[in-house]
Amino acid sequence: MEIELWFTYVATVLLFMSTPGPSHLLMLSNSIGQGLNRSWATAIGDLSANTCQMIIASAGLASLIHSSQTVFLYVKWAGVIYLIYLGLRQILGNSQSNPDNNHSFKSLKALYFQGFITSASNPKAIIFFAALFPQFVSPRAPSLQQFAVLGMTYLILDGCFLFLYGIFAEIVARRLKGKLSRGLQVATGGLIIGAAVMLCLKGIEIR
Predict the structure, then answer these.
(1) Mean pLDDT across the stretch 81-107?
(2) Cα angle at 131 between 129 and 136, to 5 degrees?
(3) What residue ranges do the domains of the chain occupy?
(4) CA distance to 47, 82, 142, 179, per residue, from 89 (Å)
(5) Dihedral, CA of residue 77, residue 79, residue 85 and residue 90, to nearest 10
(6) Can you spell out the DSSP letters for 139-188?
(7) Is residue 178 scored above 90 in pLDDT?
(8) CA-to-CA distance for 179 and 53, rounded, in angstroms?
(9) Using CA atoms, how far apart are residues 176 and 155, in angstroms rounded to an integer?
(10) Average pLDDT over residues 167-171
(11) What percent of the chain has pLDDT over 70?
């Protein structure tokens, strides 16, 4: 893959990621409530779903979204309802819960699936990858290898963004912990509901 083309791709992805999405809000929430070390399970879940979406897009199956929009809408709204449920449970939960209390910790499996479901509930991501990747593929080199480079680059950049969001959230939580524990609990629930709202606003059709 030509290095100039790769740098252009990186700049495009960074521009796209400059605006936080549902997965970033979920990462903020879990980093505040669970700590950065545990919220990495959420990040891995998000990146796992992205990997599946990239494989589908690279296989030329994005057209399935157009032919099966009803199915994908069910997937999307199931994800929205799931996030709203998580957010409300966090807001209405026991006000005495504290991140330092092990009983308040979610399992790493639960954190992973939160990240996976949030990302997988956005069917438009498949269309995004299907539209983005071909713009940076050179006909003078094997397509499969180039798709692999583009996919790995995206995952690394997204992972870095999730890490930065996690660091920021943990710093905020450490400074406010003990003083505004109930406020942090409500804030984490609000972030999850915000992720659900953002997912609601994401359509499937290409405009």
Answers:
(1) 64
(2) 90
(3) 27-200
(4) 25, 11, 49, 22
(5) -140
(6) TTS-HHHHHHHHHHHHHHHHHHHHHHHHHHHHHHHHHHTTTSHHHHHHHH
(7) no
(8) 41
(9) 31
(10) 84
(11) 73
